[in-house]
Amino acid sequence: MTDTAKKVLLIIAGLLVCALTYFFVFQPNSDETERLENETMQLQSEVNRLTSLQVQIAELEPQAQMHENEMNLYFAEYPSQMTEQKAIYNVWRMMCDTGMRVTTIAPSKDMTFMENGQIVSMETAVVSENAEASSEATEVAQSSPETKVPVKEIIGKYATYQLAFTGKKSEIYDALDWISNNSEHMAVGPIALSYDASTGKLSGTISVNYYSMNGNGIAYVDPDTSEIVIGPDDIFGTGEKKAKDSKRTYVDPNSPVTKKNQNDAENTESAN
User: What is the pTM of this model?
Assistant: First the structure.
């Protein structure tokens, strides 16, 4: 092979090496470099965005804390749980204060209307036993309502009690006001009324919603039911309110205490 042919072969080999180096080394490295530069720019943009958000968080944190404190105060107005005992006790108190007679009480299952910081309408509320806990804190609120959990994990519930009642129109109005103005956040539901011409009283049914906030940290206290008298004809006996009392007080005329007071009054009049 001549020297010229050797030089041609060396030139061709050099060009081939350069071509292979470009396509298999330089070009891939160039593409990788461009990709890394694009990722770096994206990451830098994300860092700038997060830095801006951090500044906003620092500015909004006091306001968020203030709102959380307000929410805690609001939730503290509700009982952590509403038992049937407490609900029936409140019905008895309503009778004592208004004179309206309640003959039957029909409770329903608890309904969940607030979870994960979101309130849903009563139409879309679900039976609490069918609601699925979305977090460990929510499970704590369900299993131990008196335990304090974060605001967003508090579970709002309500139970509807349907009352069959009878009373004068003024007593019915007083009872409705009593429910609406109650400190335990009760609400009046559907009402059905009918007028009895023979007695001049109204009778019918009324639904009362009792609200509670599971996980608000408020300890539940059993109501004092020692004064409640169970009657043979309806749940609270045959009672009367003291007309001369500024505060209406429900008493059962058949109870031993009432009979003793009546006997004492009769004996006093006889002695005079």
Answer: 0.62
